[in-house]
Model the fold of this input.
Amino acid sequence: MAAQALSERDLTFMLYEVFDAESLTARPRYADHSRETFDAAIETGKAVALKHFLPIRQKVDTNEPTFDGKKVHLIPEIKPALDAVIEAGLAAPSSDFDSGGMQLPPIVTSAAQAHLFAVASTTLGYISLTDANANLIEAHGSKEQIDTWVRPMREGRFMGTMAMTEPGAGSGLADLTTSATREADGSYRLTGNKIFISGGDHELSENIVHLVLARVKGAPKGVKGISLFIVPKFLLNEDGSIGERNDVALAGLFHKMGGRGHTSTALSFGENGGATAYLVGEENKGLMYMFHMMNEARIMVGTGAALTALTGYQYSLDYARERPQGRLLGNKDPESPPIPIIEHADVRRMLLTQKAYAEGAYALCLLGCQLADDEKTAESEEARTQAHTLLDFLTPIIKSWPSEYGPKANNLAIQVMGGHGYINEHPVEMFYRDNRLNPIHEGTTGIQSLDLLGRKVPMNNFAGYQAILNEMQGTIDKARDTELSLFAGQLGAALTELQQTTTSVLGATAEKNIDLVFSNSVSYLEMFGHIVVAWIWLRQGLAADAGLQANPHKDDEHFYRGKLQAMQYFFRSELPKIYHWSKLVRDIDATSFEMKPDWF
Ligand SMILES: Cc1cc2nc3c(=O)[nH]c(=O)nc-3n(C[C@H](O)[C@H](O)[C@H](O)COP(=O)(O)OP(=O)(O)OC[C@H]3O[C@@H](n4cnc5c(N)ncnc54)[C@H](O)[C@@H]3O)c2cc1C
Done:
């Protein structure tokens, strides 16, 4: 039986040895916590995942949601499983004690939810989107809106969505056409069609709180005319009880290659005169507010991708230890028994690649959680600002690197298992299908690359760009006089290459066609992402090296050596790829740009 759980040793290594999460208990917000309460939350998450979600994983995948014209039907096991997450306090563990949360640091929340996401990343979407929706209303809504909508979401009675995409407006939200008109009582009537809305309809909660982007009649064109509205599935009575159905209808469900744990819906607003909608904040500032949810969701997407990669890695690793096949080239004795496939160096190459991608990706996401926490709870104003700057800058990388390399890891999990990886008796083909969504939603990789190069790098006079370079340089300086000096040197050279490439490509925008200059933006994102992940691996390497110096017992020694080997793999086999990407970017390679649509 292949592994169904993530490596706990790896989770505690990342949490405590790389990111020093225990030190967070010194902050006033976490004064009631200790390593014991952190570990207990992680243990609870694992227990709920293995008890409630693992047994239904395949059933969820083979029984997609259906719509009979009136109601959405899911397999009955989903609701009790989600209720178990809510009852265990794991739906929003970072929220305040006052609103029913556990006030856990986000990095610990990530570890506590890690097994849940590893086993059921798509089903968990109902809960994580609800959390992000509530967080947005808490940040930008009125007190009345918080009391009305956030409280029941925190209690698990209501669920939430993020409704942006339309048939004619996916990546280009500037073209959205859903419209709203102001009524005399201050509410709005909203009309339009949204597609691909995750969790847009179901019977899992008493109500669904849609956060909808729309344009108030007469608003300016483009992104400057977009407002944000709360549009509930059911209106509420004066006393807060569920009232009549709002004018929001499910037009249909989408059938997907994966992600079957979560409904994907087409929603029609206002077919009968207009859905009642409540403005969040001020008119025309909706996209700015929505970024609160999108940025959180982007880290969530990266995390889901990383954990799906990790779980596939664990599964194929266990399989490779048990599956006997073939003999080493040097063994000419046909009478000798076949060896476990992990004995073949090429299988170890595929396992190492998965380990390097998956553990690198998850550590990157944990860094994102740490920064999201630091920007609110770090001791000094300066540290909070620094964390905000870094997180803002890194968000396109935290979203896209795990999303691109997670499915690549899952692809290799299939390959490790040969034909057995391709059939649905094992879950690795499902992991691949589930993970394949991640480079698409929450801003495609192409869109993230334009955000990075066009906006995040030059933003605030290169503040975020410079801040991340400084962080990486700090680790290089630390590693220079250690066993890892060789890797520090390689990362230093990569930073120089990155700086030269950045200066060169942004300099070219002054004299060349901007669409040509940015036509290799994905190569720039790839290069930056690989450098950041190499840095994350160097940080893991330093922690592993420190662990080895402390004369660990045998299992730990194996663990640390494995970490160092995966770091070495990343530096030897992956980091050199940046020179290929940087050449395309620096040369302003025009191959794609000059290819004419008619030439295809
Ligand atoms: C399963 C699933 C769940 C989803 N959940 C939600 C949800 O809950 N809420 C929600 O609002 N949306 C959701 N989405 C929508 C998702 O965010 C969009 O699919 C995504 O933003 C891409 O939009 P699109 O599908 O219209 O593709 P398009 O925007 O048409 O893009 C197609 C291709 O063109 C490229 N492209 C487009 N514009 C540019 C450009 N300017 N420069 C360079 N390349 C470009 C893209 O990178 C992509 O490769 C979901 C989608 C799916 C499939």
About this structure: The CA atoms of residues 320 and 342 lie 5 Å apart. Residues 162-165, 170-172, 196-198, 256, 259, 264, 437, 440-442, 444, 446-447, 450 surround flavin-adenine dinucleotide (CB under 6 Å). The radius of gyration is 25 Å.
